[in-house]
Amino acid sequence: MATVAEALNEALRHHREGALGHAEVIYRRILEVAPAEGDALNLLALLCLQTDRGDEALDLASQATRINPGAPTFHATQADAAATLGRPALEAECLGRALALAPAAAQAAGWQRRRGRALAATGDMPAALSALRAAVALAPQDVDTLDDLAVMLVKAGLPDEAEAAFTEVLRRRPDHAGAARNLVSVWLNQTVRHLDGDQPAAAADLARRAVEQAPGRRDGWARLGVALMAMNQMEPAADALRRALSLSGPVEETVEILINLGFLETRLGRFSEAATMLDQAEALEPGRAETLNHRGVLLHAQGRLADAAETLTRAAAAAAGDHRPLTNLATVLKDQGDDAGAEARYAQALTLAPDDAAVRWQRSLARLMAGDFVTGWQDYEWRHHTGHMPPLEPALAAIPEWQGPAATTGPIRLLLHAEQGHGDTLQFVRYAPLLQAAAQRLGLVQVGLNVQPALARLMAISLPGVTVLPPGAAIHATDWDARVSLMSLPYRLGTTLESIPASCPYLAPPPPAAWRDRLAQAVPSGMRAVGLVWSGDPRPDDPVSALIDRRRSLPLAALAPLAAVPDVRFVSLQKGQAATQAGGAPFPLLDWTAALGDFADTAALLSCLDLVITVDTAVAHLAGALGRPVWVLSRIDGCWRWLRNRTDSPWYPTLRLYRQRVWGDWGPTIQQVAEDLALRSSH
Length: 683
Description:
The protein is of the alpha/beta class and 683 residues long. It contains 33 helices and 10 strands.
């Protein structure tokens, strides 16, 4: 009669050859004779697993581990049975016992890998990661185990480690499609994290990698578009979103893309395209608050203020917890002249989002326009957190910011610096000589000034007591104790509507004799020389400013009514692309702008003119700062600095405002200018 060992070998031979029925009969006969035979129990359990009898397999494997708890393979078989039955906690427990008995076994890496998966299924992510890291350490060349670890790192919310792991998988096996897909998903998930953390450049970099790796993934292009939009790169953002729209995807995603495209097309001034995008979004998901909000913004940009207010009111009602429709509605009400209504909506928006920089900044413009300088200047400081202001150069940013006279301790060297446009610098540089005059009282041993290159020479001529840095001069943080933006000085110094320092002139031109001679030769005796500026800076790299410039600027041909005014010779002060219109002027126009190299040259010419007529641009501030007569054409949604319903300016005693009466229509305004110019010329 065969021994148990011989019978076990025969059964194992049948088992390996696939004769499972014969093998099972022999295993059971062995167990009848020797019920404590662990190998027979374990092998029969494996056979039951092969024939889909998980419960029986688990019972047999459990018996085997009780009889021989020191056999790691028996615990592994028990784990196999537990896995078949969907019991991950038991599977992980059994594999843990096997590993404790044989940590260096050939199967150890596989056991750790399986244990990691089982632990993840129980929700114990730290233990799962620990097991998978151990599996990778045991089999460092096993790409699939590393891929499993990378997937688990994603689930555990560790994207940076997951990215490194997937990258390594692809380095070893470039054709690993799953790792490539998962790596792209990691990048795209990280774009959301970076956008939420106000890091759009990092988000855009990851999204670009994603679309390069997987150009057919719609969500990659959509995320790239959103990131570029957050960076104010409007045209590239629109291109990315159009690419996303060309790919198929769920309706909800399509609506999001259409809404974002509608917003971008509005910002880019393509109102018809914006309306098309928003119409499509509305058709797919009627009544969505976000679509209404962006349609309200579009209507506002088109000058349809009543329609914009009605649409944004509906948007605010549809999204009671969203501050954005309220903010946009407030801005529309401001442009309608309803300062109280605007303030009420801004206050509601701030209740929902008290630390939202965009709301604070928008409200600051409304408050300043209404003459509330206390709230206006305070909120205006939030502009630095909106993402729309140019960043400070590192050396300047390294200098502590001056908080005002009350915070000054000991003698300091204070550097004033430009921040936004030339006009802003010209308007607020008035504070530089005031600080210099009060230096001893304020604890200032030096007042410095860093401005745009085109203004530096004029400032050096005009402000002899102030240290004006020459164009291109390097700023060294060790040279200054504090710095402050010119635009922050009204707040730091507590300027109110009643205390505006309006003593003009506060700038002086270089000697204008050469210009006087040129004008004397070109302008007949008895005629007045009137300077003209009809266009601002279009700033194509800044869509928001570009839209504003489109509203404040006009073609030179629109000034044709001025041709009827007698005894006036017009002089162009226009620079930039619009200067090319001078050749087709509707009246005789002297054009010496090629000789105007900087604002000092312009100031010298301007000081010789009887009057300047200009759109709302830097020349208006230059004329006012020089104390010269200047008439400013102000768009209907005029700049905050010109206040509400005034024809004069507390900033410049010699300035007169001519306000546009209808959105986009300059005709009546220019006609009024022509009539007043005729009266002026007759005296």
